[in-house]
Design brief:
This protein is an all-alpha fold and about 375 residues long. It has 14 helices and 2 strands; from the N terminus they run H-H-H-E-H-H-H-H-H-H-H-H-H-E-H-H. Keywords: Cell membrane, Glycoprotein, GPI-anchor, Heparan sulfate, Lipoprotein, Membrane, Proteoglycan, Signal.
């Protein structure tokens, strides 16, 4: 009653054993592909973690650098500006990790929150009381009256270019893991499991427990079983090319590190622009939002403090070097895996499964 291991000679196998063999080849096929995938998956997961750690390190440094701008140059707004600065860098981090937020909305939200502070503490420090309604009016009119000139839009442009490549790379790495996980659990067809039993276990039914499949036979069976997996070859090669493109983009004109470091300077230029245009801004705001309560005299000139560029300490240089090194290592490894899905059958037939150094092997029907 055997369905797979039919043979002219007497056999020690039963139909129930054949069913056990089919369960075994399914399990073994999954385990062997998992073993092949392990190194590749380990490298991608490792680099996802390394990239994220390097991103976070750069973001923390850029955030501290931006906060220090307010503490050293714009003391009157430093305390209240801390929260908008924190929100800006949180939004940037979420954007890189793939959330639905945009760079434009993050930057404009920051400047919307900053304008009431700059207007009431730096441009008109004589304002004694800022009501919620008046603060909201300043926030809402920020984009219309454009107090920060072209600096806010320039910041959006520069950050968008730099962060786009980082965001795409982050999403691409996650996609790579998803693809690998999917191939590990691809279902075996009935024909494939029968062919694997015939190749690996039917010799046992003749008492030939030490004989192994011939190399050419193994390749034919594995290529048939893994046809759906090897179809990924063209897309995987394209995927590796895309990763290469993204890492080059990050290292070239869309340099993440440079863009993050430039945030401090962009904000400083924006605030200076608003202060220098203080009288015109005040006149426009008075028309739109009305006049708030003032103390006597105008103190705005006392609050224009030229800001010195903070020196780049060792921590930033280390984070920058770490990210550059990680990118280079990662893409070198991934380029080596370009043929991964084209060569799965060859790699599965390359280990202990086949008999390479013997004059005899199993061809599916007999020992040859």
């Amino acid at each position: 009653d055997l369905q797979i291991c039919q043979h002219r000679a007497p056999t020690c196998c039963t139909k129930k054993m054949e069913e056990s063999y089919q369960a075994a080849v399914r399990r073994e096929r999954t385990q062997s592909i998992q073993a092949l995938n392990f190194e590749l998956k380990y490298m991608i997961v490792g680099h996802i973690t390394a990239f994220q750690e390097a991103f976070e390190s750069l973001l923390r440094f850029a955030e501290n650098r931006t906060s220090s701008l307010f503490e050293t140059a714009y003391r009157p707004v430093a305390k209240e500006a801390a929260e908008p600065v924190k929100e800006l860098f949180t939004d940037i981090s979420l954007y890189i990790l793939g959330s639905a937020t945009t760079v434009e909305s993050a930057v404009f939200r920051f400047f919307d929150s900053l304008f009431p502070l700059v207007y009431s503490r730096l441009i008109n420090p004589g304002i004694t009381e800022l009501s919620e309604d008046y603060t909201e009016c300043l926030r809402l009119t920020r984009q219309d009256i454009n107090p920060f000139g072209h600096y806010s839009k320039n910041m959006v442009t520069e950050l968008s270019k730099a962060l786009w490549a980082s965001r795409m790379l982050s999403q691409a790495l996650s996609l790579g893991i998803e693809v690998i996980n999917t191939t590990e659990h691809a279902a075996l067809t009935k024909e494939c499991s029968r062919a694997l039993v015939k190749m690996q276990y039917c010799p046992h039914c003749q008492g030939l427990t030490l004989i192994r499949p011939c190399v050419g036979y193994c390749l034919n069976v594995m290529r048939g079983c893994l046809a759906s997996v090897s179809e990924l070859d063209a897309q995987w090669r394209e995927y590796i090319s895309t990763l290469e493109y993204l890492t080059n983009e990050m290292a070239a004109s869309h340099d993440l590190e440079v863009a993050l470091m430039a945030i401090r300077n962009s904000i400083n230029e924006a605030i200076l622009h608003a202060q220098l245009n203080g009288p015109q801004l005040s006149a426009t705001v008075d028309k739109v939002c009305g006049q708030p309560k003032h103390r006597e005299g105008n103190l705005s000139s006392d609050y224009i403090v030229p800001v010195k560029e903070a020196a780049e300490p060792q921590t930033f240089i280390m984070a920058h070097t770490s990210l550059t090194k990680k990118r280079r290592e990662f893409i070198t490894y991934m380029k080596r895996s370009r043929t991964f899905y084209a060569s799965v059958a060859e790699r599965l037939c390359d280990g202990d499964l086949v008999m390479r150094d013997s004059s005899t092997c199993w061809n599916g029907e007999d020992v040859v």
